[in-house]
Amino acid sequence: MDPRSVKRYYRKHRKAVIVAVSGLLYAGGWSLGYVPALDTVSTATLILAAIVGGYDIAKAAYHEVKSRTLGVKTLVTLAAIGAIAIGSYWEAAAVVFLFALGSYLEGRTMRKTRNALEELLEMTPDTATVRRDGEQREVPAREVEAGEVVIVRPGEKIPVDGDVIDGETAVNQAPVTGESAPVHKADGDEVYAGTINQEGALEVRTTGAGTDTTLQRIIRRVEEAQEAQSPTESLIDRFARYYTPAIIVLAVGAYAVTQNAILSLTLLVIGCPGALVIGPPVSIVSAVGNAARSGVLMKGGEHLERAGRIDLVAFDKTGTLTKGETAVAAVEGFDTDPDEVLELAAIAEKRSEHHLGDAIRSAARDRLTPATDGGTTVSRTDAESASPDARSLPEPDDFDVVAGKGVVAGHDGRDIVVGNRALLDERGIDVSDEIAEYVRECEESGETVVHVVRDGGVVGAIALRDGLREAAPGVVRELQEAGIETVMLTGDNEGTARAVAEEVGIDDYRAALLPEDKQDIITEYREADHVVAMVGDGINDAPALATADVGIAMGAAGTDTAIETADIALMADDLDRIPYAVKLSKAARRNIYENVGLALVVVTLLLAGVLTSYVTLALGMLVHEASVLAVIGNGMRLLRY
Amino acid sequence: MSETQFRVMDFDCPSCASTVERALANVEGVESVAVHYSTGRVEIRYDAAVTGPDAFEQIIETQGYTPKPA
Q1: Cβ distance A195 to A172 under 8 Å?
Q2: What's residue A314's pLDDT?
């Protein structure tokens, strides 16, 4: 092997080499100690073991002293020097070797934990192909400017955030949203930097590059979360600040009283509450890192500990438990042709921006477009004369929105009212028992019904339905099995709400709520000592999300505010992740407590053991390092949760 | 005021991170430093006329850790 590669190998594996050499010397010196004639050789070997293993530790200790931190390395160095001074060479070598080995393993495992994030960091490609001055050019990805067109070939990673302007493909969005199934993308769809273009060539108009991409925002959020101190952690830090000096004072005092040097040195070795301070950060880094890889952004620190106490999950109904795409389920005519009812409603709703209006127009488009002459019964001449395409439904002559109730419009000399019972009552429109009965039945089955009124008389009713997400019942059941109460909040009427609640199997529901009511209800639950999570879309439900102990935003990939503000943001619009996120938070909280508990038990036992002389230097160090590794190992379980 | 970041993946204990943090804070021209044990991220705000990333990198290395540009 040429010397340069040996050197490089050494530099890369320096810590491992040092530990191994120190370990071998230690073992050698220890064995030689059994041969009385080789006593001096044994001592020399043990001292050498302590020097090889301890050089780096002593150097770090020097820096600790220089920067006035009272760190573990200073304590270990003092203990080792002290042990040599009183002739306990075996103890000195053992302490140093065990500490070096422990540190090496801790550094390695922590690196692995930190790497959970590095995978994300390496997602974004370094270069992008842009079209500049009519030609394609390869430029560094971070230098692409907003508005520039980037070309992404099949199989490549998308280098920027942007909108597709040409091409059609399937994109693997797992790096951003955690979804394993590829997502179809065509003109106008949003794509994210770091996702993988699997099929066709794409042209993307850049909306963000460099550090201004969704993936980068995610990474920043994840790091902030991992770095945030949890309440437990701050408490421990305060404790540790007093614990270490207290142990040193105790060590000095113990020596003054007992003249037992080994006892004092052993106290120094256990003077750093390693497992205690390492436990909580490892649990949090692992949990947050694991979540990020599954497309779930969790805030760290106190938010994570609070999320671990969730005992009630409130769901917004529309768009959360349901698909959020309302569609016409039935059109009923009362002594009138249903198609005419639909057409009247569609004309009245032509300029409405309400989602019910959208659904009615789209149903009209599907049902009223005459395929062939006399095919579908289009009863009114207006539609036919207007156009074969219902997209160009006639404009209403006048049009008014009655907020929360419906619309009032005029067309071709007829007054049209489309709305709920409240609107009809307000306008003094008579509703026969037969019609009221029909409406009630629809509502009980979970549909929303609008009345269609022509010239003061109800001519029909349109029932609309927002289909349930397939995952909803399973998600609710899973939460219930985890002992969590579930509630649905909705602006819908009682009947619709009850029907959906029954279908989902949710514990409770609150109907006919205005947006601000949702906030009040969350507050009520919190005052009743519940730790409440609210699940919503992060935009319309933002106030309720902010009021809850834990706000969970769904489909956050496209909304920066949700990424920034939600306590838990599900990048994908995927309800399935909620039980996972809630359970992971609980597991993380439990994990923190396990670690703290284990560390406290170990510290107490060690302290008691040292003071009763059962635990000496080497054993103290062994237990100390083993407990640190145990705590890291326990925390890392969350990476595989 | 300039800003730079490093990533140190081999911190082996929380107190190691705070030692590095203090050492960096003592460098002349350094306005603020944050060293995060959990992520290994080192953030430094400094006066570019007085000091710079090379000096920071050297300090981190002297302490026995491997800085990587973030």
Answers
A1: yes
A2: 96
- 3-state SS, A329-382, equals EEEEECCCCHHHHHHHHHHHCCCCCCHHHHHHHHHHHHHHCCCCCCCCCCCCHH
A contact test, residue of B39, B60, B62, B66 with most A CBs within 10 A: B39
Which two tokens mark A552? Answer: 């969970």
**Domains by residue range for chain B, with CATH:** 2-69 (3.30.70.100)
Q: What is the pLDDT of residues A135-189, one digit of tens each?
A: 889 999 888 999 999 999 998 899 999 999 999 999 998 888 888 788 999 999 9
Residues of chain A with CATH 2.70.150.10: 127-212
Gap from A448 CA to chain B (nearest CA, Å): 50
CA A158 from centre of chain: 22
Cα separations (Å) of A188 from A152, A202, A314?
Answer: 15, 11, 33
Q: How confident is the model at residue A377 (pLDDT cuts 50, 70, 90)?
A: very low
Q: Do A106 and B16 touch (CB under 8 A)?
A: no
Tens digits of residue pLDDT in A456-500: 888 888 888 888 899 999 999 999 999 999 999 988 888 888 888
Closest-CA distance, A45 to chain B, in angstroms, reads 25
Query: CATH class for domain A283-321+469-585?
Result: alpha beta
Answer whether A64 touches B (CB < 8 Å).
yes
**Would you mind telling me the total number of residues written for chain B in this entry?**
70
| pLDDT band at A391; cut points 50, 70, 90 | low
Residue A374 pLDDT greater than 60, yes or no: no
A127-212: CATH topology is: 2.70.150
Domain A324-467 in CATH 3.40.30.10: no
Q: What is the average per-residue pLDDT within A52-57?
A: 92
For residue A51, give the 3-state DSSP assignment: helix
Contacts with B39 from chain A: Cβ below 8 Å: 114, 117, 223, 226-227, 285
CB contact under 8 Å between B39 and A114, yes or no, is: yes
Q: Of chain A residues 248-277, which have a CB less than 8 A from chain B?
A: 272, 274, 277
Q: Across the strands, what pairs with A568?
A: A298, A552
Q: Using the 8-state DSSP alphabet, how is residue A555 labeled?
A: S
User: DSSP readout, A200-235?
Assistant: S-EEEEEEE-TTSSHHHHHHHHHHHHHHSPPHHHHH
What pLDDT shows up at residue A392? 67
pLDDT in tens, A267-282: 888 877 788 888 888 9
Sorted by sequence, the CB contacts under 8 Å of residue A322 that are 6+ apart come out as A466, A467, A468, A469, A472, A500
Cβ distance of A117 and B12 shorter than 8 Å: no
**C-alpha–C-alpha distance, residues A348 and A332, integer Å:** 17
Q: Rounded to the nearest 10 degrees, how much is the dihedral formed by the CA atoms of A609, A611, A615, A617?
A: 140
Q: List, by residue number, the catalytic residues of A.
A: 316
CATH 3.40.50.1000 location in chain A? 283-321+469-585
Query: CATH 3.40.1110.10: which residues of chain A?
Result: 324-467
